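User: What would this chain look like folded?
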Amino acid sequence: MVGKKFSIFNFQFSIRSIRKLIKIWLLIASRVAQIQLMTGWGGFAFLLGKIIRFLFFFVFIFSVLSKTRSLVGYSREQVVLFFLVFNLIDISTQALFRGVYQFRRLVVEGDYDFDLLRPLPSFFRPIFGWTDILDIITLIPLGIYFWLFVVRNNLFVNSASVLIFILLFANSMVLGFSLHLAICAVCVLTTEIDHLIWIYRDVTNTGRFPTDIYSKGIQYFLTFGVPVIILMTIPAEALLGLLTWRGMMLSIVVTAVFFLLSWKFWRYSLSRYTSASS
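Assistant: Here's the prediction, encoded as structure tokens.
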């Protein structure tokens, strides 16, 4: 079993190699954590800022829905659930794929040349080269509150909806990886990434609320253009029991297509990569 290999788009993986990658990721994450935790007050201010921003937006939601108690057919509790799921997915992708924010420096300074010589997948350092331990710490209380909120308000239909939610949450992680990989590919070709990553962040912020509030044209764009609905909205709908099997299969197919396209784009960008020493 340990030696069994499988292929994903010309990459040969085995259980043993995956374990090695996990060990390398944990080593990188521990070193990044040491750097972040050395500046104790800076880390505390970062966490405090996240908590305050979260609470202010929470107050905003309750203020908006204090009179109507609904939004496009969703109850106040359901709208809050969409907001909580958005934060879980958004913070998880930021924590795991924070290396994207550091990638431009590697390309410009030529350090990425050495990464290509290492026996690691070419995407490993650009995507997983920096793990934000402070975001991971934020996820712990957020996850606890999310579960308590769901149970207290009886927002899940049955155990099957919980399992589907977990499946689609994992699907969102794959989609988030694909989008970040495509951004890294643009950086390889143009050395520009900062503006693109902030555009991505701004667009995904549209998933804070149920996307039914947008017009049909915008919904199509947020499904097939920049798939915010697949990334943020559909997992929440699955937990509420509002997702059809057709919608579930659509989300998986869209994610698979984006994964394939981003992978092909990444391979193309590497073929056009000019090292700093050239």
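The first strand starts at residue 5 and ends at 8. If you want, I can go into more detail on any region.
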